[in-house]
Amino acid sequence: MTSPTRPTLDFWFDFGSNYSYLSVMRIEEEAARHGVGIRWQPFLLGPIFRSFGWESSPFVLQKEKGDYTWKDMARQCRKYGLPWRQPTRFPRPAVLPLRIALVGATQPWMGEFCRRTMAMNFAEDRDIDSPQAMHDLLADLGLPAHRIIEEAISDANKLRLRRQTETATEKGIFGAPTFLAGDEMFWGNDRLDEALAFCQAAAGSGAA
Amino acid sequence: MTSPTRPTLDFWFDFGSNYSYLSVMRIEEEAARHGVGIRWQPFLLGPIFRSFGWESSPFVLQKEKGDYTWKDMARQCRKYGLPWRQPTRFPRPAVLPLRIALVGATQPWMGEFCRRTMAMNFAEDRDIDSPQAMHDLLADLGLPAHRIIEEAISDANKLRLRRQTETATEKGIFGAPTFLAGDEMFWGNDRLDEALAFCQAAAGSGAA
Questions:
Q1: What ipTM score was computed for the predicted complex, to two decimals?
Q2: Is B38 helix (H, G, I), strand (E, B) or coil?
Q3: B-chain residues within 8 Å CB-CB of A197?
Q4: Which residues is A178 bridged to in the sheet?
Q5: Which of A40, A84, A164, B185 stands 20 to 30 A from A98 (CA)?
Q6: Are the beta carbons of B94 and B164 closer than 8 angstroms?
Q7: pLDDT in tens, A7-62
Q8: Which residues make beta-bridge pairs with A187?
Q9: Chain A residue closest to B53 (CA)?
Q10: Share of chain B above pLDDT 90, in %
């Protein structure tokens, strides 16, 4: 049985997460190459870490792992041809850009918005949780920045972001990026290609 | 300047570590393909986890990550064509096989000994920290099992294993498998190929 709909991968990410940076920058191109659609699922990772009893990222709490992570990030960015500057603030708060991402999740500007926000954090070392910075970014994309930010900070949308994190918890998500092809979970940028291939194969077999 | 010596990668692993299983099974073949030598560095990961305040593996302490890990392992084993059975005891104590591995680290039987021990743990779900099991395994390899085990449990060798873990700590090792090309660290089976390529390139440039 062939599926008339394009296979879709859920992409759970946080703008504060460095390994999410790698995936955000390359997912649209890779997904297109596999004939897979992306369902963008921005969420706050912080509350999930706190539910494990952690006050911050494991890369902050565990010095050895943190030191390693920045070296690994530099190498991974070189591999993917991505710019990289170690953020002076980590993890950077990202509530406003995540709220905007929820508003834009099904809009044609979503990919570019996410890549620009990630580049601000991990290539330009700039704060991203600022109304001015977000306004400038959206305006630069030719979008009605004021209206989008109004919607992003509405009570209804704030609630949506909290619900996203609850949904992530219910799905057993424990880090970012996480990819879900139906119930099949893939964790980490290192698994993006496997997740896409799985998604593609499952659709071909009529299973997704 | 060309180096007259073959580039060498230090391979830090613990028989109790599931991602070390993946690397142990494929490292000799992959290293040969890259013209890289392996320096086997068996060590006890438990004391390092305890130094972080953890009583066990993060795959045990963090239920969500643990559940995911077993699914990921099944997929990774399928990818590499390796047998897989989720161990009923995890992480399995591995002090005796690690002591034997220290005795065998520069011996021609090291690779085969390590693969068989890992297969017992992760493909056959058998305990590995048993003198009888280790005796049988060594004898099956045509080796003087009794003499090797005697040497493995000598005070001098017990001390060597403790020193291995101290050295791992000094080098900033926080998990397994870890690969070191000189001071350049690569963590996790997912980085084995990059570690080998780095080692090969560094040797070619005369830097290692």
A1: 0.91
A2: strand
A3: none
A4: A12, A187
A5: A84
A6: no
A7: 999 999 999 999 999 999 999 999 999 999 999 999 999 998 888 888 877 777 78
A8: A178
A9: A62
A10: 85
